[in-house]
Each structure stands twice: as C-alpha cells, then as structure tokens.
Design brief:
With 67 residues, the protein is mainly α. It contains three helices and no strands.
Length: 67
C-alpha cells in the first residue's frame, strides 16, 4: 500500500492512508488477531457474518424491488 505525500502535507497523507486501510479491512483484521480465536468460535463468527450479509442483501433487494 502506498500513499504519496504532496507539499509536505503529512496530515493529509495520513488521512488517505487510514482511509485505504479501512477500506481494505486491515483495522478489523488487527482487532481479530489481538487474541487467539478458537476454530469453533471463528466458524460461528463467520457464519453469523454471512447471515448478517444475507439479511442486508435481502433488505436492499426488498427496497429496490418493493416486495
């Protein structure tokens, strides 16, 4: 990942870097890796995330199509 610093504006470059990292999911990954997660917990978490994504997709589809 690369961010260009223009006109010695480090603050702007840092904001751009944070935004890129957020989009890539690096912060979320770091949070998950802070502690060991048992395989059974990981499986349950991933299944819950999949259910959440599916419900969100259905909600959006209902909004768009109206039924």
């Amino acid at each position: 990942m690369q961010v260009i610093v223009r006109d010695n504006n480090v603050d702007q470059a840092l904001r751009a870097l944070k935004k890129k990292m957020q989009r890539e999911g690096i912060f979320r990954e770091m949070k998950l890796r802070r502690h060991f997660e048992k395989p059974s917990q990981k499986k349950a978490r991933e299944k819950a995330e999949a259910v959440r994504r599916h419900r969100k997709l259905l909600r959006k589809r209902i909004e768009r199509e109206g039924f």
